[in-house]
Specification:
By secondary structure, the protein is mainly alpha-helical. It has 11 helices and 2 strands. It has helices at about 5-25, 40-55, 60-70, 75-100, 105-115, 125-155, 160-190, 190-200, 215-220, 230-245, 250-265, and strands spanning about 270, 275.
Length: about 290
Amino acid sequence: MSRLEEKIFQEYMTFFEKAERERRWNVFQDIPWERVNRDASEELALCAETFCSVEMYLPDYVANGINLVRKYFGQAWFQANWAYEESKHSLTLMQYLLRSGKRTEEQLTDLQNQIFAKKWDLPFHTPRQMTFYGCVQEMATFVIYVKHRERAAAEGDECLRAIYDYIARDEIAHCRFYQSVIKVLLEEDRPGTLADMAHVFANFEMPGVGIVPDYDSRILKMREAGVDRNVFIQKVYMPILKYLGVSRHEMLAAQRTALELRRGGEGRRDASIEGRAGAPSLDNAAPQVLSA
């Protein structure tokens, strides 16, 4: 095991120990199912169904993600743990939709069939880029769940509020693991890692884009909770940079460098993880509009 791999493994063990000690929850015992508000709005149910839909691509997320980092023990085992926790999210949301009476088993089966008719593919193709993608996606998802937790509370649905609270806790924990790995990668190869960060920021989309049924119309309802581009920048983009100790000036410099490399036709080697990473395509200084 290389020094880099050993550091990442230690980050995973820290994550895992804390999860076992502080964060585990039970779908059947910890959710206040008796406090479902069967009179909550269809909009609330539609948003829960959309979250559930994105979570249902779990087989694709796991297969693609774990194969990409298969030989990096700490990251591979994190993917296995991540899959377990994310599976609880989808199962819990399905149970909510059924127990609230908002959806029938037949409706959910039809939704599953529509979802499995399409396949999610990796948006980036090196472990380092996907590590940073995971960081941004988990932070964005955390912000979204917190917003919708407030929405569920406003409609008096204490069951859904509790579900969103548990899921949000998991999402921010996942984000923190990715951030800890990125800090290690920055120590090993700061210029290369910054270039990958710039690339991911510039091309970021949430995983449901283009594959979840009726995604565009669903997103219009999702955004009513107050999650838009400005929220992304203030609650996702800037906090991630601050946590990693990367200034906005440094990130803009990384973007300019990446553009120069692309224009010069040069390539760069991912020093932290084996494989080639193409020069980033960076046309904007800020991330694309949040899509979920």
